[in-house]
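Dear Dr. H.,

I hope your travels went smoothly. While you were away I took the liberty of generating a structure for the chain from your last submission, since the lab meeting agenda had it listed for discussion. I wanted you to have the full record in hand beforehand rather than looking at slides cold. The sequence, exactly as received, is reproduced here:
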Amino acid sequence: QLVPLDGRRRRAGRRRRGLAHLAEHASFLLGRDEAHPGLGDALAALALRHGARTTTARTHYAARVPAAALPAALALEARRMAGCAALPAAEFARERAVVLAEHDQRATPFTAALTDVLIAAYGADHPYAQPLDGPELLDATPAEACRFLRERYAPGAAIVVVTGALPPDALALVERTIGAVPARPVYAPRPIPAAAAPGPTVTRAAPVAWPTVLVAMPLPARGSPIARGADAVRERLGDALAVIAQAQPWAIGATVLELGGPQAPTLVAALEVASPAHVDDARAAVQDALATVQAA
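The corresponding predicted structure, in token form, is as follows:
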């Protein structure tokens, strides 16, 4: 189940960043009151495993259930898409604290440097340069999360995948549960602009273990005819940087990441060096390796 999202919202003249991640957590509270378990508790009682993950482009929900529990699991997902009138305040505050704690766990000097790379690659206002969550959620309310769920969690905005040893009436089960949710207008995310042209070199002082060179380049959108070639470039670049890290005495380690999102991804190559004196060597090595693998 993939729900398009755009967590940026104006509130009191500013954007509320991270609301999509908070709404993901809040969706498991739907239907919860003193007499009834919430959606999350009900799903936990059915599923062998379940979870959720929010990215810059989608929120993904997944549950593995016994075949006999499939109708009940689909009914719960239908409830997730049926709208939100209210959320229990105490439980919402707990989930908000969990989201903020997850943000703090992810906040490292290296992730801060990656944020600088994203801003340089996309521009500060680009959706892919925004954090998934953060301190702006400290005063987020249940009403905001409910509004997000109502506007974006609807069958017309979802991709539902059911796989495994399915009963013959699996499609009919989907139609009787999720398909029975009344239609309502679907929020249309704004088109995602491509990454900017190569920009200036950004130097950042950070408490990292080793000086690190980060080189970013735009990739074609996922699903485009040339995306497969970009996958090959990413794999070959990782191999080339690993060779550099082993061969050069000043090189400490290397990694290759894909950041951004599916409509406008960015490839980031990172090379750690023994001292700032070798930063230029590392930058040249990464750029040479990139040119070599692109020409191959």
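Two observations you may find useful: Confidence is low (pLDDT under 50) at residues 1-14. The beta strands are 2-4, 10-11, 14-15, 49-54, 58-64, 212-218, 251-259, 266-273.

With kind regards,
E. W.
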